[in-house]
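fwd from M.: "can u put these together and see what the complex looks like"

so here's what she sent:
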Amino acid sequence: MKEVKCECGHVNPQGTILCESCGRLLEDNEKEKQLIDMRYEGSARRSQTYNKTIIDKIWNFFSSVKVGVSLIIILLIASSLGTIFPQEMYIPPLLPASEYYGEKYGWLGKLYYDLGFHNLYSSWWYLILIAALGISLVIASLDRVVPLYRSLKNQRVKRHESFLKRQRMFHVSDAELPEEASAKIKAKLAKKRYKLREEDGDLLAEKNRFSRWGPYVNHLGLIIFLIGGMLRFVPGMYVDEILWLRDGETKSIPGTEGRYYLKNNQFIFEVYDKDKDEKVFKDAISKVGTVVKNYQTNATLYERQGDIIPGETPKLEKVRDQSIQVNKPLKIDGYALYQVDYKLGEMSKMAFKLENKQTKEQFGDLVVDLYDPKMSYDLGKGYKVEVMSYFPDFEFNEDGEPATKSRVPNNPAFIFNMITPDKPDGEVSFVAIRQNLEPLGENDYKMTFAGIETKNVTALTVRKDYTLWIIGLGGLIFMIGVVQGAYWNHRRLWIRRINGQIWTAAHTNKNWYGLKRELDEVFADSGIDAPKDQEAEDKKE
Amino acid sequence: MKKKRLITRTIILVVMALAVGYTLYANMNKDKNNKIVVGEPAPDFVLVDMEGNKHRLSEYKGQGVFLNFWATWCKPCEREMPYIENQYQQFKDQGVQVLAIDSGETDLVVNRFIDRKGLNFPVMIDDGAVQSTYGINPLPITFLIDKEGNVVRIHTGELTEETVRAFMEQIKP
């Protein structure tokens, strides 16, 4: 490795701008500047120096702050795109995603789906962006924190004149600094919590160096946060599923590998009542209309007994009854089930009457369970209705034939065969919502619609998260880093006796005004002037 | 010194690349039908057909099983059913069994469909457990299982009569 030897004898890594030890300028083009760039203490960022192998090239790419910032901007834009419409996991499972977006949000929704934005946060390109940002954080931090640590650790008390005079705060006093005044300055500095180092009457006072590590602590927090996010992909660490349950339905809880089952006994949806509830709510209720009081699922939790072959009816043992309300989840074995959504009034049963069209005489009721219709319904006295076809989600297909879009009874339709004593072969009737067709010619009888029964559907989020504490820890470290870097400033003051003059220079990483005030106070009544802000003086001229 | 740096950088990059690679891999296979692997044993299941007979996959060892997942509302499924029926008639005496699993529809709908299409092979309704074991997403999907009970082929999408024939030929014991 090519190294740069400073006149003071210290050997610096290649690319160093200011000698780590004495602060002499090592790069010629820096010498023309009036003030020096103190970022990273003029140390060599490793990446800028070597560019030989492919590994170095990759390393240098990620080390760049420009690349990091670009990644953040791209991620911000991408993340906001994902919030335009709900993500796939949050849409009700009544329609497939391919149809849902188009139907609900029009062509924009369709485009959204086609571009894959309905699953944006788990798309490969989004994950690659996040990963690239994580890599950039690690490499950019390593590349900066190591040299910065080296130079802050190696700094000498006696900095070279060229270093001192190019500091923003600098002054040369043609005066003596008697021992007494010097002691006073030192006492004042110590009182302000400066750490003092002395060499042959020259002084380096430094405080809050730890503030310089703030950004790197912050990055460390972010990296831990990302590792926590990554652990969610490790099996068993994280479950986030949704469970839709109709009233009376029992299903296995997703994510539990079929170990737990949940029955929805009843979903309750309550609103505040203007007259029954306390009077204080009255105004609010009249203003808004309906205010929801309670979303509640009365559930029973079951645990499966023994092994099971898929398809077999499981042997279930009741664990307990519990009502699940918003923010009052059912918890079992690391899993938590939260009330998250609902659907009121899903069709569950349809009632019909068989009617003679002429006499208007009606024969018996039949109630068709839309989830389990029977093949035929016997109404007695020779009257019988056969269900020839059932279309739970009726539509006419491309060939103009009745068909069903899915198995969910969103728009039920039936073809009935009505058998009556006077028509023993039956008459065919096609019945859908607000439709009653007679496809095979004029009938004597018809099916009249006699009502509908509905059920509520509850949606529960199934959540298990063993990564949360890691993510929380990452967040905490992140905040510590922010505070560390934001509320403290790294301040240094150099005092040197050179040729009978007193040279003073000072540096801070931020809040120059604060430093100036502090130094004015320190140097008051000492007989020498505090270092002056050279940049402010430039502006005055 | 230079070599040391190269090694350090390589190690750090490799570790991070592995972590990212694992995450992407885990994410891609999250919802995917990766539970069933060609060459591995097909997961066992038990279902009752429309005639009330119990069918357990492992009991068909020694025979080839043509396992088809379908639904009445799935048009490609409907189109391929007659081909499966025709070839079933050809191969049923040669040790090939057809099991057709409907995706959770009602008995009525499935029975009427069987009558309309004149299907003779066992048809059963699964409420989700078997489908999730087999990672079924789009329909139709056909699994070919050989006489040892191993999956030899997974076919997603509509079948022609030729392919049905070739598939049954493939799993004939």
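replying to her w this: Residues 378 and 384 of chain A are 4 Å apart (CA to CA).
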